Amino acid sequence: MAVQAALNARVGEVTERIRQRSQDARRRYLDLIAAASESGPKRRGLGCANQAHGFAACGPTDKLELRAGDGGNLAIVTAYNDMLSAHQPYERFPELIRTAAREAGGVAQVAGGVPAMCDGVTQGEAGMELSLFSREVIALSTAVALSHQTFDSSVYLGICDKIVPGLVIGALSFGHLPAVFLPSGPMTSGLPNDEKTRIRQLFAEGKVDRAALLEAESQSYHGPGTCTFYGTANTNQMMMEIMGVHLPGASFINPNTPLRDALTREGAKRALAISALGNHYTPLGRMLDEKAFVNGVVGLHATGGSTNHTLHIVAMAAAAGITLTWDDFSDLADVVPLLARVYPNGKADVNHFHAAGGMAFVIRELLGAGLLHENVETVWGTGLSGYTAEPMLDGKGNLAWRDGAAASGDEALLRPAGNPFQATGGLKVLDGNLGRAVTKTSAVAPERHIIEAPAKVFHSQEELQAAFKAGSLTGDFIAVVRFQGPKANGMPELHKLMPPLGVLQDRGQKVALVTDGRMSGASGKVPSAIHVTPEAANGGAIAKIRDGDMVRLDGVNGHLTVLVDEAEWAARPLATHDLSSSHVGVGRELFAPLRAAVGAADRGASIFDRTAA
Question: Is 48 labeled as ligand-binding?
């Protein structure tokens, strides 16, 4: 069992100010879910025809159970498809869950499906402009799945980038229901990530052909499970575990293994055990409070997680009536040490991270340093100290838990809080006359944390790639890629920028990126100020920059500034850009209402905001 140190003063201060600023919206939300739960399970109050429709397709035993109304009915909300490697294993999960529910005296039904797109497939393509908005569609789809009000608890089958945040937002709209998230786990290790990156850069330089590139990518992404680098998908899993929505140690067990199946069955049973039908009622909306979200942000910093979560955690918290700000992220980063170096912050992948001690070790270290709230509700029924255990199968093949590693198995990738890779977290919030932005310092060499260079302005990643191929990206420069925000074109990830910029950096040029778009968890070694807000399409100052302006990206002191005379800068007009080509085709015309309604990046880039007055 972990030893809980006195809570760090900064963590306590940040938590308290979040509580105070959120108290009205949080109270409204809690009143809403209390009203939804006060009359007991909704299915018992449904009309006979309604109930008959709900169990018409069930087998005789399940139908009898639901007719009697004594056992729990467990909703399965699934993001299964067999195109997405991380979601393909979910094909088997509903039957595992149904069996486990029956063993626990209940019933499980697939309540509905939600879309699950793969950012890896859509990178650099038009479909990527739907990616961030798919989070809102997933939230809406989750609400539709649960709208039949015939369920007592819920489990969620989703793991990747926008899918987990969307499921959480949707689940919080039914926050009176308990919720357990069931991951599928990472694929086994393939081609080392640094080798994959090397071949990508060689291809960008024209030194290897497409066949060599495809072979390298195929060796990297080679089987069922999440991609093994520490991007948004695996950051999601860290976050769900450290916020107590997974079972302890569930995040990084490989798919299609006996241990993964045992955890899936146990998660289903646990979801029924914490329903309102029993004595341990743990509704999700009450469980995910200010302390839980602070724990999520602390975990993000300590592990060098995805920058996408400066959007997603804000949006998820808002769905629970809690207002998180980038200032909260920044202030927590000042006191949370970086404990992990997993690609792109190092050479190891998440399988190596798990083998070295994984989440149990990280949580133990952070509790011991007073950086996490231990006294939180979790689906496991313990405080967070219960998450310092790791799952195993005993000699009879039954699920059991043992104390997690007390020491790191490899301090090249996982270190104790007393000997971190760096004293502060992996993210930094930037402010200046360009607005606000986020940078991921943990992936960047310290000598590149401050870059000052003239701007080269582009309006798409294709423009920058064309300039690279033409040989015109000479000397030191900061690439400004604008009109890539949520209102402009859905805020796509811009990973096609990394190979050419990485090549130029390796040649000795000082380069950096400033954009109102996203880079996410795969942000690499090139300094990048991302999520610039206000965005160019919404009157942001990034639309004022001209070629040759000196720009300073200071990841040490947290500044992002254009070094132009103040009066000239104030008088300079905003550039415009024709975005019509990004608003049609590949379904993009259907998302016009979302582009119109979406909020700013520092408010989660969401169309939902329960914290608004």
Answer: no
